């Protein structure tokens, strides 16, 4: 039992660490996914914006949902939210606390994707190259609007023949990349400041209530884990008794068929205990066949008497 | 000893899920690795492109899905529970559904990874749909009034850089960018769709069927544990059976040689007595040879004599001649 106690304590103290670890892994996976993804701007007038914004926002949504799925606590929270009241009242503050902690952890990987995308710049350039003002750059003076749009949409593709040697291509790229990186760093700075303020100011507001909700949310988590462990233990004991009962009933059946009852009452320790009265091939075959064709009922009440 | 089993079982049970998740993750990584190691080779012919591309997109996921089932050792348990005769224990379809669903969910991950990686890479989609590029938008449709068939043949060569000869019809880079863009958009949409499905499946369960779910989970674990314990019990039994059978064989050989006097009834506490017991009455070369020959030529029946079990070992010699008739009767009945 001591070892179980140690294992339980390990689980309890490390529930938060496990979740933080998963969160970190997802963040690393998000960066790795971005670097291995082969960005491919279509360089066509209407497709650019859709593609660019799609790459910027679809993967973060998928990463957010992944973060929710992989977090065990989201299930616990949902169960607590949806359970019938029964004999235990529900405390909404606990559910809110669990929800906010889950959301915070799940938001980290998507935010990292968005920031990396902005700092890299390719996506921003692809999405917004058609929306800049051509007057600011040379080389667009005597082009029709349609032509201008076409040329601008080819800016992200360096090797395209139309724009390869255009004087304004590099300028437009630099301009858009500068905006993209500024946006990226600003978002990063704002988020870090918000996180810092949230952490630093929390003890100023309602610390006692916070301690309570944190305790009870941990409690709910641990209670569910221990319930599952107890069910496993119970299932194992149940199975053990069921099988022993089955062997005994086989033994009784065999006894009834013999004319001379051997001295079973003298069964001592050692092999007799393990053999359980099954002592030859036909008896064993009969037992195995019966195990398959006539599984015993799930009822060990006679066995425990 | 049972305590140790208990702890090991508990560890395995709580980690059964983690073990299956681990295998699932390994298969997903293997699937991504397989894709990058696979040498994609588009045929660049009008009617073959679509077949090849769709084949590469859809056939390996099917194989991976089936492999996911094969590598899951709960499949045999599910099959057994499904096909067994009812006997005295009712079958619960909810338990079967739970087991099947949890296995299918895990088996779906590697195929989904393959399809996502294929679509995000773009080669496959490009190969399959290169003949459907909209030439009006991307190139000059009016180029030398080509017939449909000729145009399709040229477009089919888009994936193969070396043999493409339609640069005036539509620039290759433009077509490639277009196709890859659509492929990647489809890929990310697929990823988002799968993640949303997984999230809904996980999130809606506690809202609707939690009590039934707890029941199915408990009984499916129970079936697994019962099967394992039954195997353990049978192994224990087989061990003891074999031990007693062999002991009785040695005794029988001993008796046949008429050397029934070599034992003293009391157990000698000294080492010499223990060794004597271990020798089981066979103490010379001739007897041992006869025993070995007899073990090969004439194996004893799978039927333990009752009086040999009473005291666990062979020190109970002096009752043997009294119980001979009983031995014969027991043997007779077991043959019937």
UniProtKB/TrEMBL annotation, chain A:
<dbReference type="GO" id="GO:1904669">
    <property type="term" value="P:ATP export"/>
</dbReference>
<dbReference type="Pfam" id="PF14798">
    <property type="entry name" value="Ca_hom_mod"/>
</dbReference>
<dbReference type="GO" id="GO:0051291">
    <property type="term" value="P:protein heterooligomerization"/>
</dbReference>
<dbReference type="GO" id="GO:0050909">
    <property type="term" value="P:sensory perception of taste"/>
</dbReference>
<keyword id="KW-0407">Ion channel</keyword>
<dbReference type="GO" id="GO:0016323">
    <property type="term" value="C:basolateral plasma membrane"/>
</dbReference>
<keyword id="KW-1133">Transmembrane helix</keyword>
<keyword id="KW-0812">Transmembrane</keyword>
<dbReference type="GO" id="GO:0005261">
    <property type="term" value="F:monoatomic cation channel activity"/>
</dbReference>
<keyword id="KW-0813">Transport</keyword>
<feature type="transmembrane region" description="Helical">
    <location>
        <begin position="92"/>
        <end position="115"/>
    </location>
</feature>
<feature type="transmembrane region" description="Helical">
    <location>
        <begin position="182"/>
        <end position="201"/>
    </location>
</feature>
<dbReference type="GO" id="GO:0005244">
    <property type="term" value="F:voltage-gated monoatomic ion channel activity"/>
</dbReference>
<protein>
    <submittedName>
        <fullName>Calcium homeostasis modulator 3</fullName>
    </submittedName>
</protein>
<keyword id="KW-0406">Ion transport</keyword>
<comment type="similarity">
    <text>Belongs to the CALHM family.</text>
</comment>
<keyword id="KW-0472">Membrane</keyword>
<feature type="transmembrane region" description="Helical">
    <location>
        <begin position="49"/>
        <end position="71"/>
    </location>
</feature>
<dbReference type="InterPro" id="IPR029569">
    <property type="entry name" value="CALHM"/>
</dbReference>
TrEMBL record, chain B:
<feature type="transmembrane region" description="Helical">
    <location>
        <begin position="50"/>
        <end position="70"/>
    </location>
</feature>
<dbReference type="GO" id="GO:0051291">
    <property type="term" value="P:protein heterooligomerization"/>
</dbReference>
<dbReference type="GO" id="GO:0016323">
    <property type="term" value="C:basolateral plasma membrane"/>
</dbReference>
<keyword id="KW-0472">Membrane</keyword>
<keyword id="KW-0812">Transmembrane</keyword>
<dbReference type="GO" id="GO:0050917">
    <property type="term" value="P:sensory perception of umami taste"/>
</dbReference>
<dbReference type="GO" id="GO:0005227">
    <property type="term" value="F:calcium-activated cation channel activity"/>
</dbReference>
<dbReference type="GO" id="GO:0051260">
    <property type="term" value="P:protein homooligomerization"/>
</dbReference>
<comment type="similarity">
    <text>Belongs to the CALHM family.</text>
</comment>
<dbReference type="GO" id="GO:0042802">
    <property type="term" value="F:identical protein binding"/>
</dbReference>
<dbReference type="GO" id="GO:0034765">
    <property type="term" value="P:regulation of monoatomic ion transmembrane transport"/>
</dbReference>
<dbReference type="GO" id="GO:0005245">
    <property type="term" value="F:voltage-gated calcium channel activity"/>
</dbReference>
<dbReference type="InterPro" id="IPR029569">
    <property type="entry name" value="CALHM"/>
</dbReference>
<dbReference type="GO" id="GO:0050913">
    <property type="term" value="P:sensory perception of bitter taste"/>
</dbReference>
<keyword id="KW-0407">Ion channel</keyword>
<dbReference type="Pfam" id="PF14798">
    <property type="entry name" value="Ca_hom_mod"/>
</dbReference>
<keyword id="KW-1133">Transmembrane helix</keyword>
<dbReference type="GO" id="GO:1904669">
    <property type="term" value="P:ATP export"/>
</dbReference>
<protein>
    <submittedName>
        <fullName>Calcium homeostasis modulator 1</fullName>
    </submittedName>
</protein>
<keyword id="KW-0406">Ion transport</keyword>
<feature type="transmembrane region" description="Helical">
    <location>
        <begin position="20"/>
        <end position="38"/>
    </location>
</feature>
<feature type="transmembrane region" description="Helical">
    <location>
        <begin position="185"/>
        <end position="204"/>
    </location>
</feature>
């Amino acid at each position: 039992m001591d070892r179980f106690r140690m294992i339980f304590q390990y689980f309890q103290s490390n529930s938060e660490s496990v979740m933080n670890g998963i969160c970190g892994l997802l963040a690393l996976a998000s960066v790795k996914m971005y670097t291995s993804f082969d960005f491919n701007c279509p360089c066509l007038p209407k497709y650019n914006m859709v593609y660019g914004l799609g790459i910027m926002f679809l993967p973060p949504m998928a990463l957010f949902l992944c973060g929710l799925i992989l977090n065990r606590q989201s299930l616990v929270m949902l169960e607590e939210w949806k359970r019938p009241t029964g004999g235990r009242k529900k405390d909404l503050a606990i559910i809110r606390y669990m929800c906010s902690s889950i959301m915070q952890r799940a938001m980290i990987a998507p935010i990292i994707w968005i920031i990396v995308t902005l700092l890299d710049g390719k996506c921003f350039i692809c999405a917004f190259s058609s929306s800049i003002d051509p007057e600011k750059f040379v080389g667009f003076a005597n082009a029709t609007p349609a032509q201008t749009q076409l040329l601008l949409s080819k800016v992200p593709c360096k090797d395209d023949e139309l724009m390869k040697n255009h004087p304004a291509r590099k300028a437009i790229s630099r301009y858009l990349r500068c905006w993209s990186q500024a946006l990226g760093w600003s978002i990063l700075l704002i988020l870090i400041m918000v996180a810092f303020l949230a952490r630093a100011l929390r003890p100023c507001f309602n610390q006692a209530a916070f301690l309570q909700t944190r305790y009870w949310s941990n409690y709910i988590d641990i209670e569910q884990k221990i319930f599952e462990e107890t069910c496993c233990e119970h299932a194992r004991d149940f199975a053990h008794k069921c099988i022993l009962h089955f062997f005994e009933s086989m033994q009784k059946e065999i006894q009834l068929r013999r004319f001379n009852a051997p001295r079973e009452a003298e069964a001592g320790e050692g092999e007799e205990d393990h053999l359980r009265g099954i002592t030859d091939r036909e008896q064993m075959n009969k037992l195995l066949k019966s195990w398959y064709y006539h599984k015993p009922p799930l009822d060990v009440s006679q066995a425990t008497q | 000893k049972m305590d140790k089993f208990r702890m090991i079982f508990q560890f395995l049970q709580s980690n059964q899920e983690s073990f299956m998740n681990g295998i699932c993750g390994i298969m997903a990584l293997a699937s991504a690795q397989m894709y990058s190691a696979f040498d994609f080779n588009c045929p660049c012919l009008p009617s073959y492109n679509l077949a090849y591309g769709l084949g590469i997109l859809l056939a390996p996921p099917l194989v991976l899905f089936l492999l996911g089932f094969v590598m899951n050792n709960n499949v045999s348990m599910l099959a057994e529970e499904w096909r067994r005769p009812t006997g005295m224990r009712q079958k619960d379809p909810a338990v079967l559904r739970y087991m099947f669903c949890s296995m299918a969910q895990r088996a779906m991950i590697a195929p989904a990874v393959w399809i996502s990686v294929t679509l995000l890479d773009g080669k496959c989609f490009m190969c399959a749909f290169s003949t459907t590029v909209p030439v009006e938008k991307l190139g000059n449709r009016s180029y030398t009034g080509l017939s449909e068939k000729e145009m399709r043949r040229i477009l089919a060569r888009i994936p193969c850089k070396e043999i493409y000869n339609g640069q005036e019809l539509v620039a290759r880079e433009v077509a490639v960018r277009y196709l890859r863009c659509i492929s990647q958009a489809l890929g990310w949409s697929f990823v988002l769709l799968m993640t949303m499905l997984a999230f809904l499946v996980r999130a809606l369960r506690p809202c609707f069927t939690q009590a039934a779910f707890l029941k199915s989970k408990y009984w499916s674990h129970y079936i697994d544990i019962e099967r394992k314990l039954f195997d353990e019990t049978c192994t224990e039994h087989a061990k003891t059976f074999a031990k007693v059978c062999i002991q009785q064989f040695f005794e029988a050989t001993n008796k046949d040689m008429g050397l029934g006097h070599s034992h003293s009834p009391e157990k000698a506490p000294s080492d010499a007595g223990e060794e004597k017991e271990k020798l089981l009455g066979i103490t010379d070369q001739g007897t041992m040879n006869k025993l070995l020959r007899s073990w090969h030529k004439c194996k004893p029946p799978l039927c333990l004599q009752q009086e040999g079990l009473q005291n666990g070992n062979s020190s109970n010699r002096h009752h043997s001649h009294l119980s001979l008739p009983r031995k014969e009767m027991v043997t007779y009945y077991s043959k019937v």
